[in-house]
Design goal:
It is a single chain. The protein is mainly alpha-helical and about 150 residues long. About 50% of the residues lie in helices and about 5% in strands. Strands 1-2 form a two-stranded antiparallel ribbon. The protein is built from six helices and two strands, in the order αααββααα.
């Protein structure tokens, strides 16, 4: 089964609603959809993830990747594949500009791998300790990760 995921935000939301309804009624579709998410990181982002943008009027949006984000996501995923094949830890730095979704990208890559692969682990680093582990501070990395997980379909 092949899935086409629209990259225009409102079309993407309508598509997600149709997929959710079909997945609720059709186990084969649900399993194929989940497999597509595990097979293709770009599909996972565009089909499953949401982003919170505090600087705009509509703050919660579907994560619809921009063309320059796709190669970053794919390279991160390939780097993890290589590290797992060689069974060696890696250090990966992703230089980014503000408002480019960098934090959500690396969290989304890690979240997909954790859902896909039993025993997957990753360490996350941020510029200061206060921005790591909080379920109440929207700037904290773990807040963002928990927020993303809370919005995944069951």
């Amino acid at each position: 089964m092949t899935f086409e995921c629209p990259k225009e935000p409102f079309a993407n939301i309508r598509w997600r609603l149709r997929c959710r309804d079909r997945a609720n009624a059709d186990r084969g579709f649900r399993e194929a959809f989940l497999q597509a998410c595990f097979d293709d990181p770009i599909f996972f982002f565009n089909a499953m993830l949401w982003v919170y943008e505090p600087r705009v009027s509509i703050k919660v949006k579907p994560f619809v990747t921009w063309p320059h984000q796709d190669p970053v996501i794919l390279q991160m995923d390939r780097t993890i594949d290589e590290a797992m094949a060689n069974q060696l830890p890696i250090s990966m730095t992703v230089p980014k500009s503000r408002a480019q979704g960098g934090t959500y990208i690396y969290l989304g890559v890690m979240l997909r791998r954790a859902l896909k692969e039993s025993g997957f682990s990753a360490g996350l680093v941020t510029r200061n300790e206060e921005l790591v582990d909080s379920r109440t501070d929207a700037d904290a990395v773990m807040f963002k990760l928990a927020w993303m997980m809370d919005r995944l379909p069951r």
